[in-house]
Amino acid sequence: MVAIILLVVEFVCGAASGIALGRWVPSFSLGRTANGLIGGVGGMLFVWPSARIPGVGPLVGHHAAGLTSTMLVGAGIAGLLGGLILILLAGFVGALIRG
To answer: What distance in Å separates the CA atoms of residue 4 and residue 26, rounded to the nearest whole number?
Structure first.
């Protein structure tokens, strides 16, 4: 149950950062829906490498026994960063393809 809640937080935060970046940098935007989906996926994917950083794993819920507010904030920040990174990469590739 804890893992599902953290995945939802990561997806929502990643989607929010993807949509926000698409509005702030229109040349990298792939459309609101695509920005949200790509950002959400990036938010969920970024937690895997961030949990391997020493000392950061417990903040994103890696090997946790229960849900704490620190884990929610950590998962939200990881989701925001992951969504931002993936939408930047996707937007950059899209801008290169468009010319």
So the answer is: 32
Q: Count CB neighbours of 14 within 10 A.
A: 33
- The C-alpha angle 12, 87, 53, rounded to 5 degrees, equals 75
Full-prediction pTM beyond 0.70? yes
Q: Residue 14's pLDDT band (boundaries 50, 70, 90)? A: very high
* Dihedrals phi, psi of 35, to nearest 5 degrees: -60, -45
Tell me the three state secondary structure of residue 78.
Answer: helix
What DSSP string runs through 14-63? HHHHHHHHHHH-GGG---HHHHHHHHHHHHHHHHHHHHTSTTTGGGGTTT
